[in-house]
Structures are given as structure tokens and as C-alpha cells.
């Protein structure tokens, strides 16, 4: 398997363009991210300038300074390009919120957890994620929950004739 690195400037421009194409709608943009050994999820509300961080091992977003800086910069560029007015005290602040979410119980299921988080966020169709978003969930997903997701993913791949 080969790994490649994306140019941060190209990614930042792509993100800003995506925000600008959707500037009339208040929505969440889901950005799964793999640091090389672990998947996490950033859910971004560009209009309210809030970035939600979901990590199935309950790490901290400050462990990813490169992507944090890139997302902060993309939101500031987006703010400037749409001519948004913000108070001086808000001008440098993007709100970051760590969401308490189900915790993986091993070292291999982080990708499935991120897929499950995205599925639940899309199904609820909200523009915010309260810190207690997963409060009614168990502390971790069951094998049945993950198997259901794996089966849905396999069916999607087969239906789309991806392979």
C-alpha cells in the first residue's frame, strides 16, 4: 500500500471553495482525517465557525496541529471572502468543541467508528453537534453495530460497482 501526502495549500483552497459553493446554506461539512495510524472526524459548520472534533479513542484535537491550523486558516479565508463581519474578540477565534462519543475498544476499528459517527450525523440532519450528542449511545459500539455498518458499506460498494 502506498501513502501520499496532500499539499496543505491545495487542500485549504479546496475547502474554502467548498464552503463558498455552499455559503447560502447552514450545514455541517464532514471531514474524516487519518493521521497515518488513526482516524478522527472533523465536522465543520463554516457559517457559525465551529469545528467539532470526534475521536473514538478520546484524544484531543491539539494532537493534530497541522490540520487544526489548516482548518482555522480555511475558515478565516472563507470569512474574508464572503465579507463576514465579526467582533474584534472573535476575529481570531474559531470555536473547537470535542464531542463525547462512543469509544473503540481495540486498536483497529477507528475507521468504522468514524463511518458510524458520520452516518448518525447525516441521519440526524442537524447543523450543530451538542457535546451530549451521543449521550443515549452505549460507551462503545457493539459488534452487531459495527457488523451492520460493514454490511451496509459492502452493499454500497457492490451497488455502485466500485470494485
Q: Would you kindly provide a written description of the structure presented here, covering whatever features stand out?
A:
It is a single chain. The protein is built from four helices and four strands; from the N terminus they run αβββαβαα. By secondary structure, it is of the alpha+beta class. A hairpin with a 4-residue loop joins β1 and β2.
- Percent strand: 5-15%
Order of helices and strands: HEEEHEHH
Shape: globular
In whole angstroms, the N-to-C terminal distance is 17 Å
User: Average pLDDT across residues?
Assistant: 86
Rg (CA only) = 17 Å
Helix tally? 4
Number of E-state strands = 4
In which range does the helix fraction lie? 25-40%
- Contiguous runs where pLDDT drops below 50 for at least 5 residues: none
Which structural class matches the secondary elements? Answer: alpha+beta
**Widest beta sheet: strand line-up:** 1-2-3-4
The largest pleated sheet is described as: 4 strands, mixed
Amino acid at each position: 500500500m502506498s501513502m501520499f501526502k496532500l499539499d496543505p495549500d491545495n487542500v485549504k483552497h479546496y475547502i474554502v471553495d467548498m464552503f463558498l459553493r455552499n455559503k447560502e446554506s447552514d450545514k455541517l461539512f464532514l471531514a474524516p482525517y487519518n493521521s497515518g495510524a488513526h482516524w478522527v472526524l472533523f465536522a465543520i459548520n463554516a457559517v457559525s465557525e465551529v469545528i467539532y472534533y470526534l475521536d473514538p479513542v478520546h484524544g484531543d484535537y491539539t494532537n493534530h496541529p497541522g490540520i487544526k491550523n489548516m482548518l482555522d486558516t480555511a475558515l478565516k479565508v472563507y470569512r474574508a471572502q464572503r465579507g463576514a463581519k465579526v467582533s474584534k474578540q472573535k476575529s481570531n477565534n474559531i470555536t473547537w468543541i470535542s464531542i463525547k462519543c462512543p469509544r473503540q475498544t481495540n486498536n483497529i476499528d477507528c475507521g468504522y467508528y468514524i463511518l458510524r459517527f458520520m452516518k448518525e450525523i447525516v441521519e440526524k440532519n442537524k447543523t450543530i453537534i451538542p457535546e451530549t450528542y451521543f449521550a443515549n449511545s452505549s460507551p462503545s459500539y457493539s459488534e452487531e453495530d459495527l457488523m451492520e455498518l460493514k454490511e451496509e458499506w459492502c452493499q454500497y460498494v457492490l451497488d455502485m460497482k466500485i470494485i
